[in-house]
Write a sequence for this structure.
């Protein structure tokens, strides 16, 4: 899809791009092609797209994948997406992905191996964290992000940007920046440069569940406080149990979450949960 085609579709359906929904439509066939090359979809595969918009990625992905589902917040695009997705054997649901739950799936067995999104930048982080929570079996995620968000995604421990996004994407598998995309590749053009990143799943451990993701979010919830205060403020873990776990890990009780390596957070979670299970066990006896 090029700029002329985007303008024609907008005109034909009487749509206008909504800034409040982060609508910057891809209009560069080379970039679209590169994203789909990265996805390497085939008929054995299941693909989810978040925010299909006018269908720049969907129109090709739906033909390449065995099963294709898109989640789009803007109901104005229904006619266009019916033509691009539903008429080609895919499915689209109209809702805010942040409110999405597995019950909204048209097919309960739908479990995407590939997730694609030219992310709406105003909700980039919550969408990425929710995808990591919702689809632990996904093998590959390809996201278009604002280039400045790369600092947060690739942040190392000890830096200001280090947080749930860097920790969770790090532990999910291998991540890499694949290409830089200039603002002229979108209509309307955003103010910033964008980048495509790929996250390929490693071996996801059994603990990869919503409680683990919530634990990491809670560890960074109060960034100016110590890890003990941040983690205990959520009410899930007592200060005493966190302090005992830190002692077992030979970590100072004033440690802050950004000083912990992703593997330290995994260890802390494991210790806290073993302990929690034991407490429960003793209470039940
Ligand atoms: N995929 C299209 C493309 O590449 O041209 C559109 C990308 S545009 C940057 C972001 C898309 O996400 C828009 O279609 C917008 O309506 C949609 N969107 C925004 N917020 C959303 C949300 N919370 N849940 C689902 N879709 C959302």
């Amino acid at each position: 899809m090029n700029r002329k085609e985007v303008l024609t579709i907008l005109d034909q359906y009487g749509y206008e791009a909504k800034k409040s929904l982060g609508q910057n439509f891809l209009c560069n066939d080379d970039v679209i092609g590169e994203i789909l090359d990265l996805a390497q979809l085939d008929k054995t595969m299941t693909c989810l797209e978040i925010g299909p918009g006018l269908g720049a990625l969907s129109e090709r992905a739906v033909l390449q994948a065995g099963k294709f589902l898109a989640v789009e917040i803007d109901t104005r695009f229904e006619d266009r997406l019916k033509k691009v997705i539903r008429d080609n054997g895919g499915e689209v649901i109209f809702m805010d992905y942040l409110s999405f739950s597995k019950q909204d799936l048209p097919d309960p067995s739908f479990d995407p191996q590939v997730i694609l999104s030219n992310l709406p930048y105003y909700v980039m982080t919550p969408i990425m964290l929710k995808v990591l929570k919702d689809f632990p079996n996904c093998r590959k995620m390809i996201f278009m992000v604002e280039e400045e968000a790369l600092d947060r995604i690739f942040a190392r421990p000890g830096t200001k940007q280090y947080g749930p996004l860097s920790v969770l994407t790090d532990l999910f598998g291998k991540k890499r920046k694949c290409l830089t995309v200039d603002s002229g590749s979108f209509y309307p053009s955003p103010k910033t440069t964008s980048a495509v990143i790929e996250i390929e799943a490693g071996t996801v451990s059994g603990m990869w569940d919503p409680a683990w993701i919530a634990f990491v979010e809670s560890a960074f919830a109060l960034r100016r406080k110590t890890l003990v205060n941040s983690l205990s403020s959520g009410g899930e873990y007592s200060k005493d149990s966190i302090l005992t776990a830190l002692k077992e890990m030979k970590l100072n009780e004033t440690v802050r979450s950004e000083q912990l390596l992703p593997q330290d957070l995994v260890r802390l979670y494991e210790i806290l949960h073993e302990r929690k299970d034991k407490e429960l066990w003793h209470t039940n006896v």
Remarks:
- The radius of gyration is 21 Å.
- Residues 262-284 form the longest helix (23 residues).
- The chain has a mean pLDDT of 94.
- The CA atoms of residues 87 and 284 lie 55 Å apart.
